[in-house]
Specification:
Blueprint lengths: L8 H10 L4 H19 L2 E4 L1 H16 L12 E4 L26 H8 L4 E5 L33 H8 L5 E5 L6 H7 L2 E4 L20 E5 L2 H11 L17 H8 L8 E5 L9 H16 L3 E5 L7 H16 L21 H12 L2 H14 L5 H22 L4 E5 L15 H5 L6 H6 L3 E9 L8 E8 L5 H19 L12
Parallel strand pairs: 2-3, 2-4, 7-8, 7-9
Antiparallel strand pairs: 1-3, 4-6, 5-6, 5-10, 9-11, 10-11
Helix pairs in contact: 2-3, 7-8, 7-16, 8-16, 10-12, 10-13
InterPro entries: Amidase, Amidase_CS, Amidase_dom, AS_sf, GatA
GO molecular function: asparaginyl-tRNA synthase (glutamine-hydrolyzing) activity; glutaminyl-tRNA synthase (glutamine-hydrolyzing) activity
Enzyme class: ligase
Amino acid sequence: MTDLTRLSAAVLAEKLRAGEVTSVEVTQACLDRIAAVEPAVHAYLHVSADEALATARDVDARRAAGEELHPLAGVPIAVKDVVVTRGMPSTAGSKILEGWVPPYDATLVERIRAAGMPILGKTNMDEFAMGSSTEHSAYGNTHNPWDLERIPGGSGGGSAAAVAAFTAPLAIGTDTGGSIRQPGAVTGTVGVKPTYGGVSRYGLIALASSLDQAGPVTRTVLDSALLHELIGGHDPRDSTSIPEPLPDLVGAARRGAQGDLSGVTVGVVTQLQGEGYQPGVQARFEESLELLTKAGAKVVEVSCPHFEYALAAYYLILPAEASSNLAKFDGMRFGLRVEPEDGPVTAERVMAATRGAGFGDEVKRRIILGTYALSAGYYDAYYGSAQKVRTLIQQDFDAAFEQADVLVSPTSPTTAFKLGEKLDDPLAMYLNDVATIPANLAGIPGISVPNGLSVPPEGGDALPTGFQVLAPAKADDRLYRVGAALEAALESRWGGPLLDRAPDLG
């Protein structure tokens, strides 16, 4: 009998439309898989079994009645816990929002519900999306399904681990500096950061408003295109939402899968490879370039000289915006409220006690950094200068895209590291996003496609690596064409998807 949890979302959708399986069967298979492996992986903070099955039963009844449904109707999905969901806890991985149940849905959740997709639950994450390992969650670590002693990436490690562990065919992540793409790279999944404004931010618990972007986490490039087309498009409730239709993403993925990249110029970013990248990561990257060349692409070298300043600029802009956005968590309106143990109960003392108890160390670190960068006398020197660097990075991208249709690099400089290995070294942790951050600063789209396995420097079992493709703003279709072509070439070489080679969790 076919294991439904191993099928892609596109295949499941076809089987559902053909009446070969029911949504209840698919959803129950995912819930059974969650029950079997979740104690080891801990990808979820909340599992909504009853609601998911109720949605599945409704979709099955509507399909049986002959109703025309969305192509993904009945396909289950998991949602990162930074996205608000009516009737389900939404904590952003923080104690300060423990038990908070929003009275409304994010726009992308509305679209998921309207399509008839059962929501399996909410996935674990670094607190307020601050981290690269999901070790900064207030609710415990998520473990990488490839090696349970290693990180699944972050901040969206829960979504990536859920997809990699076959507990959900699809998931939603958010990407502020790489939080979809970096977990994708280290778990062998596909992660997409759409163009900024391409998917509504209404209902995302904000970290850095000029950088945050929700997107798909899947097992195939086509699945990402299908989900992206559903959740994307204009939303008048988001002032930064692009008031234009999306390009044909699914069509681009299907064309790319045919393996012909004739006429496509691929730019290799000099500054996003070499020193600091594990030899195995670099080797898989160069092998992927050879496959793109065989598919007909022209590969050229491009230089983006200001990328070396991206990390520093990002870690001024993000903390500054986080300091502002997180000021609302004050113990007064919603979420946690802690009163001082002694002395007068004043607004200031309640705020201090609540924020002291509710925020974790990494969140406090970034709030302090951001508040300092925005303070009188330092604003121009720090935040203002970082914004100037951001403009230079955007100009680098503009110049590079005059030479190439897409830009490529390894997604992450290393394979998954061991839990606890970098927890006491914030700078080492931040360096995990060195290749992904420039895209967020410029607002352009990016995808990470699994491109092989590499043995980590300390030895042991081989672990996944990722190949990043970047495209100009609003040209997300280019990601899917090139990503699908690489995926097809790799799967032809491997004889199937990379995740088929992952350890069996039971």
